[in-house]
Amino acid sequence: MMVVDEGTGKLISDLKDTKGIHGMALAFDLGKGFTSNGGANTVTVFDLKTLNASSVIAIQGKDPDSIIYDPATKRVFTFNGKSNDSTVIDATSGKVVGTVPLGGKPEEPALDGKGNMFVNIEDKSSLTEFDTKDAGGQGVMATCSLRRSFRSRD
What we know:
Number of strands: 14
Shape: globular
Distance between the termini: 52 Å
């Protein structure tokens, strides 16, 4: 991951250990950033002030793609395209605390600020809601189909 000064175009930082980087999540309250590294099945943790890597976390999820930080639970969630799940990381300690099975290929997540995560399951055309406080995967609360029937306008 490269960080560039937008005014000058000068390279500020070139963060290593981000093979196949897909996304980045920022935890301003912790002074940390996290990258999802799909080519290595890892998450790189970096310091927001120095932009230097502080650790690399190996995850069991395959091909981590989207990544998001939930300030309410101080957890980072990766959405793993090849293992159809979400890896849950304690952002404070950097430890993997669980996996949430999603039953399909997850794409972009969204938080509601009340402890609920919504994620698009792209190969199922559905939306799954789960509890961000539950790292063991029992927190899936609902799955809603996004498929729609279309009929021609005759």
